[in-house]
Structure formats: structure tokens, C-alpha cells
């Protein structure tokens, strides 16, 4: 007993320290969102400057949400963002899954060199390519259209890598069994490998949708028509050109932009953890 007690005490202490660290980290992450939501339901900006700060406002109002929809074409921004993020997500699921499967299972000349090129593109920041990309879209006459935002996102080096790692983790015996049943490469992919890739595909879809939903730089460069802008730029306009100086209105706009993605993430976060664990990536 004298040898077990110190070990058990040490184990309990480690768990307590871990929970404390995770609790502090969670609080640091959640606190800004809570403060934004508090500002969105506060009747005046003075509530946000009160010292000492309080968790709940003196009274609750939803008028800030109404002001958002009257000051800017907010629902138009949401529709544009859904169109861009949704289209890119669907297309990437197709292109990244087929490319990832090809790099994982097929043999063709220059495979390793081409995959190295794909991975190398991850190290190129978008700021380096934004000017050439704008010139290309301008020559094609696509600026001020949603196509200027959709076309650059149809391929994803990260998505190809993520799904390649997933397909490598699947046993080859599945493909061999399908081949014995007379299935070709395409049929094996669509009827055997793809149905087993639900968590990885869901993860890529969530990450892709979230990234393009929040993207600010590309719409800011490619589009100057207010009616064609996406939600992140719309929030900038709400805080700038169409601003009434109300922090509560801006907070309401941010809250409305966060809630849909937050709900989707909370519902599907287990797929992200499962996919990352199976792909060999480390958190």
C-alpha cells in the first residue's frame, strides 16, 4: 500500500493540473465570443465600458440585430458567402478525394515529384499569389463576380494530403477483394473506398466551408460591388462605411456570422478528431 499511494497521488495531481490548464485555455478561447454576444444584446455601448465589467447587461435587447439588417444588405452577404463556401466545399470534396486516392493507390510516372509539388505549394502564402491571381481574373473578366472567389478554391493541397493519408490507412485487402469480384478501379473507389471515408470527407468539408466562410482577403481584392460582397467584407463595411458608431450593432453582426459555423462545428467535431487521428496528423 505504501508503494501504490504515492503513484495514485501523482496520477491524481497530473489530472488536476491537466484539467486546470485545459480550463484556462477554454476560458481564454470562449471569453471573446461571450463578450461579443453580450455586446450584441446590450441596449447601449456604455454597457461594454462599465467597470468593473459584468457578465450580463442590465437589460436585454434584440434591436441591434434589427439594425444590422437595415444598415447593410446582410442577408445578401450571407447568400453570397453560402454560395461561395458551399460551392467550393462540394467541388473540393470531389477533386481532393479523387486526387488523394490517386496519390495513395495508383502508380503513374512522376507521382512522387508531383505530390512533392502539391505539398510544396502549402508553403506559399496567399499574399504572394494574390496579385497574379487578380490579373488573371481581370483578363478573364471575372472580377466583381463570385466566380473570382470560387475558381481559386477548387483545389486544395491540404485537402489532397489529408485524404491521401486517410486512403493510405485503409487496408489493401479491401481493394483486392473488390478486384476479385470483378470491380474496376473506378468502381472500387466509389463503392468501397469512398463509403469508408465519411469522417475524413466530413472533416475536409467542415474545414473548407469554415475557411471560405471567413475568408476576407480574396473578396476584398476581387470585388468592389457591395451587392456581390461576402459576409466578412460585409462586416467590415458595417464597421466602416455604413457604421453608425454602435459597437452593439457590430457585435450583433459578428454574432450572426459566428452562430451558423459554430453550430456545424459542434455537431461534427467528433469527425475532425477521428479523421486527424486516423490520418497520422498530430494535434
Task: Compile the SSE list and pairings.
Blueprint (H helix, E strand, L loop, with lengths): L3 H37 L22 H9 L2 H32 L5 H10 L5 H15 L6 H4 L6 H13 L3 H8 L4 H9 L4 H17 L2 H6 L8 H9 L7 H33 L4
Written overview of the protein:
With 283 residues, the protein is an all-alpha fold. It folds into two domains: 4-49, no CATH class; 64-279, MetI-like (MetI-like fold), CATH 1.10.3720.10. The chain is 71% helix and 0% strand. The chain has 13 helices and no strands. It is globular, with a radius of gyration of 24 Å. Mean pLDDT is 83; it is low at 279-283.
Please describe the structure with a list of short key phrases separated by commas or semicolons.
single chain, 283 residues, mainly alpha, MetI-like fold, 2 domains, disordered C terminus
Radius of gyration: 24 Å
Number of strands: 0
- Average per-residue pLDDT, rounded, comes to 83
Straight-line N-to-C gap: 37 Å
Roughly what percent helix?
over 70%
Low-confidence stretches: 279-283
* CATH topology description of the largest domain: MetI-like fold
TL;DR?
The protein is built from 13 helices and no strands. It is an all-alpha fold and 283 residues long.
Amino acid at each position: 500500500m505504501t508503494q501504490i499511494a504515492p503513484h495514485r497521488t501523482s496520477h491524481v495531481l497530473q489530472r488536476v493540473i491537466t484539467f486546470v490548464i485545459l480550463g484556462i485555455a477554454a476560458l481564454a478561447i470562449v471569453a471573446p465570443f461571450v463578450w461579443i454576444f453580450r455586446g450584441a444584446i446590450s441596449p447601449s455601448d456604455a454597457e461594454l465600458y462599465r467597470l468593473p465589467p459584468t457578465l450580463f447587461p442590465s437589460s436585454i435587447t434584440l434591436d441591434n440585430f434589427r439594425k444590422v439588417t437595415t444598415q447593410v444588405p446582410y442577408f445578401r452577404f450571407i447568400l453570397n458567402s453560402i454560395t461561395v463556401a458551399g460551392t467550393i466545399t462540394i467541388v473540393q470534396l470531389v477533386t481532393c478525394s479523387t486526387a488523394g486516392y490517386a496519390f495513395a493507390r495508383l502508380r503513374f510516372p512522376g507521382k512522387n515529384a508531383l505530390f512533392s509539388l502539391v505539398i510544396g505549394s502549402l508553403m506559399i502564402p496567399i499574399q504572394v499569389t494574390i496579385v497574379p491571381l487578380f490579373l488573371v481574373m481581370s483578363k478573364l473578366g471575372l472580377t466583381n463576380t463570385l466566380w473570382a472567389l470560387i475558381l481559386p478554391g477548387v483545389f486544395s493541397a491540404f485537402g489532397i494530403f489529408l485524404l491521401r493519408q486517410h486512403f493510405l490507412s485503409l487496408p489493401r485487402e479491401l481493394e483486392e477483394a473488390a478486384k476479385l469480384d470483378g470491380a474496376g478501379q473506378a468502381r472500387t473507389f466509389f463503392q468501397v473506398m469512398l463509403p469508408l471515408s465519411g469522417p475524413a470527407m466530413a472533416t475536409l468539408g467542415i474545414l473548407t466551408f469554415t475557411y471560405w466562410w471567413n475568408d476576407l482577403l480574396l473578396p476584398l481584392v476581387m470585388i468592389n460591388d457591395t451587392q456581390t460582397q461576402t459576409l466578412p467584407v460585409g462586416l467590415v463595411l458595417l464597421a466602416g462605411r455604413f457604421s453608425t458608431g454602435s459597437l452593439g450593432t457590430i457585435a450583433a453582426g459578428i454574432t450572426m456570422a459566428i452562430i451558423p459555423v459554430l453550430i456545424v462545428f459542434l455537431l461534427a467535431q467528433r469527425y475532425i478528431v477521428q479523421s486527424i487521428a486516423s490520418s497520422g496528423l498530430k494535434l
